[in-house]
Amino acid sequence: MDILYLLIPLAIILAGVATWAFFWSVKQGQFDDLESPAHRILFDDDDALIPDDARIKKDEGKDKHS
Asked: How many domains does the chain have?
């Protein structure tokens, strides 16, 4: 029973720190843009990883898709 005198204030302090961290991150703008980081991986520059013989030339790509 004596452990409750330690655990209850410890839980309140931990909840207060978590609440402070949440409001601090909201104030800093951590939750402003939730879409861009998920789409950023799709637009990485991977041209250096494509072998030369597998590359589509820009002129050929326009003719095939037009």
From this structure: 1
